[in-house]
Amino acid sequence: MAIYNLGVIIRFIRLKRGFKYAVTLMSCCVAFSMMYWTNWGSNPKIEQAGMDGSARQAIVTGNLIWPNGLTIDRKTNRLFWSDAKLDKIEVLDLNGGQRQLVMSSVANIHPYGLAVYQDMLYWTDWNSKSMSRFNLSSGHQQMIVKGLQKPMDIHVFDPSLRFSGTKVISFDTYASVMICALSTSAT
Asked: Cα–Cα distance between 58 and 96 in angstroms, integer?
């Protein structure tokens, strides 16, 4: 089965037999034919590869413990992530350069899920049991939803942010888990 005009960012949790580490979250940026994922294992890291699995490489390997909450800012081509153990949010370019701290535990956050939309970074927070946002231009932080039990991931949907290229997504199943990969044909 082929799916056309799939949203730019696809996220899913990937499970596979034989992994000695947990791949916690994967974020695929179809427009650039790349996918990014976190690994909490004995050597925590953030990796990238082509949608077909080629050109795999670690882009963040240091100062990580429990990286998760990946999101891609399509406007600036930057990858944001949270670290649930270090209680911080960081960002870098899609090639692994220009790493910067966005927010740290000093801001009394325990971020889990992340989303970026129109210069705002949204996250779910396990300390305050809330959803908050941070204006990436002004630095203003605001709690926007309170009283959540244990908020996990967060997504923003805007139909105008749809991939309109010629790439095709094909789906296959493995251990009852859906996997997405770019295909070279539309069959």
From this structure: 8
Chain-centroid distance, C-alpha 115: 8
- With beta carbons less than 8 A apart as the criterion, state whether 46 and 38 touch: yes
Owning domain of residue 107: 2-183
* Rounded-to-10 torsion of CA 122, 140, 135, 114: -20
The model's pLDDT over 106-146, given as tens digits with 9 standing for 90+, comes to 888 999 889 999 999 999 998 899 999 999 999 999 999 99
Task: In whole angstroms, give the CA distance from residue 145 to residue 159.
Answer: 23
The CATH number assigned to the domain holding 83 equals: 2.120.10.30
Name the DSSP letter for residue 148.
Answer: -
Query: pLDDT, tens digit, for every residue of 56-69?
Result: 899 999 999 988 88
* pTM exceeds 0.85, yes or no: no
C-alpha torsion angle, residues 116, 123, 68, 5 (rounded to 10): -40
Cα dihedral sign for 86, 92, 98, 103? negative
CB 68 within 8 A of CB 25: yes
Number of domains in the chain: 1
